[in-house]
Specification:
This is Eukaryotic-type carbonate dehydratase. GO terms for molecular function: carbonate dehydratase activity; zinc ion binding. It holds the Pfam family Carb_anhydrase. Keywords: Membrane, Signal, Transmembrane, Transmembrane helix. The structure is a single chain. The chain is of the alpha+beta class and 306 residues long. The chain has one domain: Carbonic Anhydrase II (Roll), CATH 3.10.200. The chain contains six helices and 16 strands. Strands 2, 3, 5, 6, 7, 8, 10, 11, 13, 14, 15 and 16 form a twelve-stranded mixed beta sheet that branches. A two-stranded parallel sheet has the order 1-9. Strand 7 and strand 8 form a beta hairpin. The longest helix has 24 residues. The chain is globular.
Length: 306
C-alpha cells in the first residue's frame, strides 16, 4: 500500500509538472475564450469556474478547512504566459492544507504552485472580482487512497484554494506588495529571482473566515475533473495601480486574447452541491434559540411553583 501511495503521488506530481510545462509552452490560449478547447474541457460535467450562489449553497458547520502557509522566504520567479504563475523550490511548499470534501472526509494536500487570473474566474453571487489567486494543492500520498464506503464522493486528487481581490484604493494588497508582477518574464532564463513569504504576503486574509466548497475541474486544459474548490468569500483589497501591473499582461493587452483577460468563461453548475463553511448555520442558531426559550420558560414555571 505504501509503495502504491508513493507511486500515485509521483503520478500526481508529474501531472502538475505537465500542467506547468503546458502553461509555459502556451499550448492553449484564450483567444476564443476556451470554446476551442477539446477533451474533458468540452465534454465534462463538473467543469470550473462557476457562479457560486448563496441560494445554491448549504451550510455545514462540520466542514474543515485548515491551511498552513509557509513562513519561509522562498526563492521563486514570476512567469508570464497564459497566466502569471510561480513554483516553489524543490522539496518546498507554499502551503499545507487539511480539508474535508462534500462528504466530510478529510484529506491532506500540499502546494508548490499557484497562478493568477484577471479578471477572476469564479463568481461570487453573480459578482466578478478583478483578480483571482488560485493555490493548487496536490493530495498527500498518505491520503491518496480509496474513499471510505460511507462516502459518495471519490477522493479528489487536487484542491484549489481561491482568493479574490477587487480594487479598493483605500487599502493596499499585502500579497501584491510582496509579489510584484512587474518582475514577470515569459522566459525562466530571464526572470529575476524574488523572495516570497506566503504567511506575510497573505497576512490580511483571515484563514478561518467563511468559504465555499464545490467539486470541479482545473480551469485550463486538460480540465481534469478531480478538484475540490475552496473559495474564500471575503474579497481582499487591491489598489488600481496594483491591478494595472497585472491587467497590462492580459485584459489591458489587446494582443492577448483581444484584451479579454485570462479567465475561462463560467461553466454550467449542473446541479452540483455547494457548501458553505466557517459560518454559523441558521438551522443550528434556530435550534439553540428554541432551546434557550424553552429553558427560560421552564425555569420561570418552576420558580412560580416553588
Amino acid at each position: 500500500m505504501q509503495n502504491y501511495r508513493k507511486s500515485n503521488f509521483k503520478n500526481l506530481t508529474l501531472v502538475v509538472i505537465l500542467i506547468i510545462a503546458q502553461i509555459q509552452a502556451q499550448d492553449f490560449n484564450y483567444i476564443n475564450k476556451g470554446s476551442d478547447w477539446t477533451g474533458t474541457c468540452l465534454s465534462g460535467s463538473l467543469q470550473s469556474p462557476i457562479d457560486i450562489s448563496d441560494v445554491q449553497g448549504s451550510c455545514d458547520n462540520t466542514m474543515n478547512l485548515t491551511m498552513q502557509l509557509s513562513n519561509q522566504n522562498l526563492s521563486t520567479q514570476i512567469l508570464k504566459s497564459q497566466v502569471l504563475s510561480s513554483t516553489a523550490p524543490a522539496n518546498q511548499y507554499w502551503s499545507y492544507l487539511y480539508a474535508s470534501n462534500l462528504d466530510g472526509v478529510i484529506s491532506g494536500y500540499q502546494s508548490n504552485y499557484f497562478s493568477i487570473h484577471s479578471p477572476a474566474e469564479n463568481y461570487l453571487n453573480g459578482s466578478q472580482a478583478d483578480v483571482e489567486l488560485q493555490i493548487l494543492h496536490t493530495i498527500n500520498p498518505n491520503f491518496a487512497q480509496t474513499a471510505p464506503s460511507s462516502s459518495t464522493e471519490p477522493i479528489t486528487q487536487y484542491a484549489i484554494v481561491s482568493i479574490m481581490f477587487s480594487v479598493s484604493d483605500s487599502s493596499t494588497s499585502t500579497f501584491f506588495s510582496s509579489y510584484d508582477p512587474t518582475k514577470a518574464s515569459a522566459q525562466a532564463a530571464s526572470a529575476p529571482q524574488i523572495s516570497l513569504n506566503m504567511t506575510q504576503a497573505l497576512s490580511s486574509l483571515d484563514l478561518t473566515s467563511s468559504y465555499y466548497l464545490y467539486q470541479g475541474s482545473l480551469t485550463i486544459p486538460p480540465c481534469t475533473e478531480s478538484v475540490n474548490w475552496y473559495v474564500y468569500s471575503a474579497v481582499q483589497p487591491i489598489t488600481s495601480a496594483q491591478l494595472s501591473n497585472i491587467s497590462i499582461f492580459f485584459k489591458g493587452d489587446l494582443q492577448f486574447a483581444k484584451g479579454a483577460g485570462n479567465n475561462r468563461p463560467l461553466q454550467s453548475v449542473n446541479g452540483r452541491t455547494i457548501k458553505k463553511g466557517n459560518i454559523q448555520c441558521e438551522e443550528q442558531f434556530i435550534h439553540f434559540f428554541s432551546f434557550f426559550v424553552i429553558y427560560t420558560f421552564l425555569n420561570f414555571f418552576v420558580c412560580k411553583m416553588l
